[in-house]
């Protein structure tokens, strides 16, 4: 566990009182002195002898925050009295949260990040020390980690910047470290009953890649035919980048392993959905690596099954083109080219019962 301490104290508090207050706070959260990675207080206390002595004793570099910085942090236990004397309604809670890198939106959020809100100790001389403890954000594998506002914004930027890409820079390679991170992202995907029905094949054989590309070429023509009046418009679109992309992965469904949990009534759908969730993880992880990914589903599944020597019951979900691109499309390519526009958000979310009205009649597409 890594924690941040926020410390406040009366002027002239003896170092023993301060040390004792911290020891009690650590005991209450079952932490040790060695778990402390940050200590904070207020600028008013930058020259407080007990704080300086404890810092020297423990090897801490205490961060002293201004009253304005501390006042901007929402806390569960603000105090009017503290505000009157210091200009901020909280010293220890706010300093602990700042030291932990937490950016709580409100007091409830702040309470989640605090392992110990306000631990107060009155020394024998009547002087008070207050200690708060916050969990340090940022431990990658910390299941309790709280994401900061900045991280939230990055995540939403990632969602908005993900595109289905068909144009790739030719002649590029992915490093094994990038590939490892992509596989790790897939491996964290949810799946029905923890079935993990997905399998991914990386196509490294150039002639196999070419045969898959030809299977897509053939299906592209059959799709154009099926589109009737929009055939020429469709054929003008680029719908895959199999030959140029740095890597070609095939997303597959393994033959059904008979998982029942969560699948009794929708066995096929839940397996497909689980595999799609894994592909979405890959899509986002690729974008986070500044790589494009294109999901290609234009192929005859029997033809692909034959090329990949799939066993009975295995299915192909998609051919995934992954690699560096010259630039990302600023909007879905299908809307930018006028093929189709995305539905407005308010048409897609309802409440309680189906109330979406009839689908508008559109040209085939
Ligand atoms: C299951 C699935 C299959 C897709 N197959 C193809 C495809 O064969 N060719 C293609 O150009 N785009 C394909 N796409 C990409 C969609 O056209 C694209 O996601 C959509 O137009 C929205 O654009 P965006 O992903 O850039 O937001 C597929 C997407 C999904 C989810």
Topology record:
Elements: E1 3-9, H1 15-28, E2 36-42, H2 49-58, E3 63-65, H3 67-71, H4 80-86, H5 92-99, H6 107-113, E4 114-122, E5 128-135, H7 149-161, H8 176-187, E6 198-203, H9 206-226, H10 231-235, E7 247-253, H11 267-288, E8 292-296, H12 301-308, E9 315-323, H13 333-336
Parallel strand pairs: 1-2, 2-3
Antiparallel strand pairs: 1-5, 4-5, 6-7, 7-9, 8-9
Helix pairs in contact: 1-2, 8-11, 9-12
Main traits of this protein?
365 residues; alpha+beta; Nucleotidyltransferase, domain 5; NADH Oxidase; 2 domains; five-stranded mixed sheet; four-stranded antiparallel sheet; 13 helices; 9 strands; 17% strand; elongated; binds flavin mononucleotide
Describe the fold and architecture:
Strands 3-2-1-5-4 form a 5-stranded mixed sheet. A 4-stranded antiparallel sheet has the order 6-7-9-8, with helices on both faces. Helices cover 37% and strands 17% of the residues. With 365 residues, it is of the alpha+beta class. Residues 163-164, 166, 239-240, 295-298, 318, 332, 334 line the site of flavin mononucleotide.
Residue share in β-strands: 15-25%
**Looking across the biggest beta sheet, what order are the strands in?**
3-2-1-5-4
Going by helix content, strand content and strand pairing, the class is alpha+beta
Q: Main beta sheet: strand number and arrangement?
A: 5 strands, mixed
Distance between the termini: 54 Å
Q: What's the CATH class label of the largest domain?
A: Alpha Beta
Q: List ligands, each type once.
A: flavin mononucleotide
CATH topology-level name of the largest domain: NADH Oxidase
Oligomer: single chain
> Would you identify the CATH architecture of the largest domain?
3-Layer(aba) Sandwich
Q: How many domains in all?
A: 2
Rg over CA atoms: 29 Å
- Shape by Cα distribution: elongated
CATH superfamily placement of the largest domain: NADH Oxidase
Number of helices: 13
Fraction in helix: 25-40%
Mean pLDDT: 94
Stretches with pLDDT under 50, minimum 5 residues: none
Series of H and E elements: EHEHEHHHHEEHHEHHEHEHEH
